[in-house]
Records
---
Amino acid sequence: MIDKMFIGGRFVEASTRETFPSLNPATGEVIGQVPRGGKADVDRAVAEAQAARAGEWGRMSALERGRVLMRIAQRILDDAEELAQLEALDTGKPLTTARNDIQVLARYFEFYGSAADKVHGEVIPFLNGYTVNLLREPLGVTAHIVPWNYPAQMIGRSVAPALAMGNAAVLKPAEDTSYSALYIARIAQQAGLPDGALNVVTGLGEEAGAALASHPDIDFISFTGSNEVGTLIQTAAAHTPVKCVLELGGKSPQIVFDDADLERAVPVIVRAIVQNAGQTCTAGSRLLVQESIYDVCVSRVAEAFARVKVGTPDMDLDCGPLMNAAQRTRVQRYIDDARAAGVPVLAEGSLADGLPAGGFFVRPVMFGPVAPDAVLAQDEVFGPVLSVIPFRDEAHAVAIANGTPYGLIAAVWTENGGRQQRMARAVRAGQVFINSYGAGGGVELPFGGTRRSGHGREKGLLALEEVSTTKTVIQFHGE
Ligand code: NAD
């Protein structure tokens, strides 16, 4: 485990030499200390990033940049098991999930590495005697503030496109999960990424995070996290001012019509909420079921839900603990409040035998029927809690689906082709799945929110547009 920050190609302590503990969510025990970076460290990291842009990294051709990213991808795959073990230890997630996360991390570097030299400019027709070129250029120094739920994946998603375009990045991992970021920094250096092109400043959100978001010399912020902090980030970005992409919360609906293939839908629906113990921004946390099949659909989902088992990473069950004590308290309060309010419990998952006493485990719960405007159906719980809501027809389903402040992703389960298209257009979301659901998946697929789920797009080729800008070069040469 690397216990130093990574600035300008060197592993260093915080300038104050202060550290803070990192806990294992499955046991509550301290697994190591992490440097508590602050403003001085962020200043150094941004200066190193600027120097990298002005130096070897800034001069590197798109082809060479792409090759560096592809080598990083290969190194991630070479070290995949070690990285997965580290990620599982740091997050508490089942090993299978952690292994998948590392494959996705590598995929981000492959995808953007191979795209680096395929971003073309344009020639724009203009007046006779002129040639106009539209160049696409990097923004400069990009800041990346990521959450703890999928630390490695989020780094790939946010940082890989920025590097592919030739930006120099400063990354601030979440305080609970710094280790994969530091490991990735070492791999990147070994793969030939020039010093300063990627810097990792560990630390607390209100210290290192706030210093990074408000730094006068950054050119872009990519933030993934809560709506509360997203508002702070956008406020900071407004003062500089720089562009920001915000990937925030969600309350994504799974909409099941009476002609749905339940055989296919049921396991996907359960997985969409218990994956990562519900700590997924795209968790399918609301199950909207047409009244005419309510009983049969709910009983089948409940049956599958009751089989969900929670355990440690090594047990490799359906999900692990929540991230930290505060998160567990928060999620448990939603569950207790709903029970106290008399919301019926349709099913509960179970905790495996022999779990460590200090782990942050919560028993998954499926509630229903839940009123569409109830707290449970409106708030992002960020835990393994499913709310079932009946609906009458398409119009009613759309009203409920769009009846939260969020708009991240949605799924529509129906065999009716016309309805598939109508629903896909009517639901407010950045992604709509039809007869499937890919919470978190799809490196190739543009992703991001509408409304309070944020703005801007990550993943796919569109992400490259977010981390670059255009320059219009107008040349007069005569006819
Ligand atoms: P969080 O907002 O508390 O923290 C996210 C990051 O912001 C961390 O690195 C943290 O250190 C940093 N931070 C905290 N305070 C800061 C400040 N004042 N200034 C700058 N940075 C600061 O979120 P979290 O609890 O880690 O993650 C959970 C939330 O993230 C959920 O709401 C979830 O929906 C959202 N999320 C969204 C997506 C998406 O793609 N839309 C993906 C994952 C998580």
---
Amino acid sequence: MAMFTRSQTQMESREQEPPSLSPALSIRWWSKETVAVVTGANKGIGFALVKKLAHLGLTVVLTARDDERGGQAAESLRAQGLVDVHFSVLDVSDPVSIDAFVSWFRNHFTALDILVNNAAVSFNDIHENSVDNAELVVKTNFYGSKLLTEALLPMFRRSPSIGRILNVSSRLGSVNKVRNPNMGRMLQGEDLTEEHIEAMVGSFLEDVRKGTWKSQGWPEVWTDYAVSKLALNAYTKVLATRYDGCGLSANCFCPGFTQTSMTGGKGTRTADEAAEVGATIALLPPENLPTGKFFMGCNPVINSKL
Ligand code: NDP
């Protein structure tokens, strides 16, 4: 596919980072002209990621579904001197909002370098497993990321530094959580397509409607959320295959159990710690940047094939 090539612009200059940064971040291939978009960034890991990327000197678009919450979050970062943080409203569960955001982005920026699909919902407390909101969970966590990615694909910069899609996912959506062997085989198959993934999601929602979801081999913990992330992981694999060698990478990142609203403040790490890892993965030097990988927890070295 000729859409992205590695030789169309000069590689950005490399400078040394301050010593406190993790080694991967010390190879500074990016500049202020490098543009990142982060979804669901008014709080939690998304907000921390915007802060981290802006601190590192990128131009970052903080997006949020609520104008006031998002605007205040961006303003709080600009007040810290992070003047290259921009804000736009974006509700990833609403295709009209996605279209409006892409138009806004086109009017303000010439190209996109990094897309972090971070926005997500979950309606269960730690030990609950209701699927009452399954449609909304799937619509936000899977379709929201997918539709936004597709709408922004033409905007990725043609650059040797390689465009990056980082999908913030969860190990709850790993293929080994699926107990239905046919489903597991389909997800691991080399011929996996978007149609397969959408059929899987449709079949889950049908099981929810019929009340049969508990007996069909779906993941046992936070089932609707796990299926949404399973679909997101699978979609990342399809993207990675489609754009392999074409200047665009697609990876997933599980931040691990992190203290945010989603976990009711419980967790083993802070959002800033999770964002440090997320930023490291998003900014891996072009020559070390894999595609189609699932990065787990705090150690960006541990990664596995999707
Ligand atoms: P938070 O609940 O703190 O943040 C979620 C963000 O997503 C909020 O900004 C929320 O906005 C936003 N959001 C929700 N729905 C939409 C929508 N339709 N459009 C745009 N934005 C939306 O959770 P985390 O920071 O913990 O979650 C960030 C990511 O990390 C998620 O993808 C999550 O699945 C993943 N993750 C988190 C883990 C954890 O332990 N915390 C573990 C594994 C994965 P609003 O404030 O308006 O609700």
